[in-house]
Every structure is written in structure tokens, then in C-alpha cells.
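To fix ideas, we reproduce below a protein record of this kind.
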Amino acid sequence: MDARALRDKIAGDWFFRGGGWWRVEPIERIRTIAREMLEGEARFASIVATPSADGALRVSWHWDVFGTLLSVESLLPPGGLMPTIADIYPGADWAERETRDYFAVEFEGRASTPPLMLRETDPPGILLRSNGALP
């Protein structure tokens, strides 16, 4: 399936920005969207998380569809659980573990999220706390 057909399948408002197609969705929809991306033969590319001033986390999931970037952005409220997509896209495992290490995010639907860069004894989020980015 090409990117246009996949955007049509995942109905809603897509907008073109920065060389790719974007949409905003509630975080509860990310697993459904990940399944639709997989069915459309999209390759998982990355997860990018950035903190906002109110303590929420802006999270973007990115997929490549034969050279076209499709991205979905959601807002994770402070203390909220992020749904895992690692069972749908095993390649998301490292990105989820990295997000846990940096932002102390807990993933719903994962038996465990072992540290990627931290020691087992390090608390999640310490990588940014030491820079003053998180309380």
C-alpha cells in the first residue's frame, strides 16, 4: 500500500509538514494506528518524545512508507501510561526503552521495560534529571 492509500485508510486530517505527513491523535489510538500501519506495510522508524512546560510529554511515532514519512503525534499527560507498540512492531522495543530511560515513562502492555542505557539500579529518567530537565 502506498502512503496516500494508507493515509486514506487511517481516515482523518493529515497535514504536510517538514517533508512528511502528520496527524494528531489521542494517545489511546496509537495501538490501532500501529496495526493499520503494519497492515499497510509501513516500516517503523522512531519514537520522539519532548517534555512540555505543563509536565506532559509530546510523543511522535514515525513510519516510513516507501520513502514517505507518516507521523502521529499524541500528548501523554503527567503520570500517564504510554501504550506499547513493541508487540506490533518489535523494532519499537529499543525506542520504548530509550523513552523510559530518558523520561521515566511507564508502558502499558509490556511485561517489563528493561533499561537500554541505564544500569538496573538507576532510576528511570535520571539521564534528563541530571541536566535539570525534569524535577
Q: What stands out?
A: The chain is about 25% helix and 30% strand. The CA atoms of residues 62 and 71 lie 4 Å apart.
